[in-house]
Amino acid sequence: MTPATTDHEILTWEAFGAGVLELARLVRDDGFAPSIVLAIARGGLAPAGAVAYALGVKNCCVINVEYYTDVDERLEVPVILPPALNLVDLTNARVLVVDDVADTGETLLLVADQVRRHVADVRTAVLYEKPRSAVRCDYVWRRTTRWIDFPWSASSDVARIPDDR
């Protein structure tokens, strides 16, 4: 399971594997068969790739959104960063938008609204959803009020390289 401290929930790589498999099962058991998995970078890259593998979806794409600037610090509104996703490539697709967490939900809301008018169907999937999220995701592995330390962003195994140039 996922170890927790009082204010942080720590997701291990092992729990991440179990979480993405459960997320993929929720999608499959709902009868949704995405033709494209859309990752929200950066946090959604690992979950989206793993969910795509679990569902057997080979068509994956990425949209870059900046919102968080530090632990529980964010911009006023999320901003889509270049390179821009070519929405024409999504025409009539069944898209599964994947991110690591729906905290405020503003990032998922922005992305879903951007692609919705171009696709046949859009659904959202996250490892974690918080009660304050503006979006109720279609597929959620866990719900929490804590800050989550993800292994790809908080782990000493994948820590930021010091700028010692």
Any key phrases for this structure?
165 residues, alpha/beta, two-stranded parallel ribbon, 3 helices, globular
Task: Please characterize this protein's 3D structure.
- With 165 residues, the chain is an alpha/beta fold.
- It is 24% helix and 33% strand.
- The chain is built from 3 helices and 8 strands.
- The strands form 2 sheets. A 6-stranded mixed beta sheet has the order 4-3-2-5-6-7, sandwiched between helices. The chain has a two-stranded parallel ribbon with strand order 1-8.
- α1 packs across α2.
- The longest helix is centred in the N-terminal third of the chain and has 17 residues, at 13-29.
- The chain is globular and about 45 Å long.
- The termini are far apart.
- The mean pLDDT is 89.
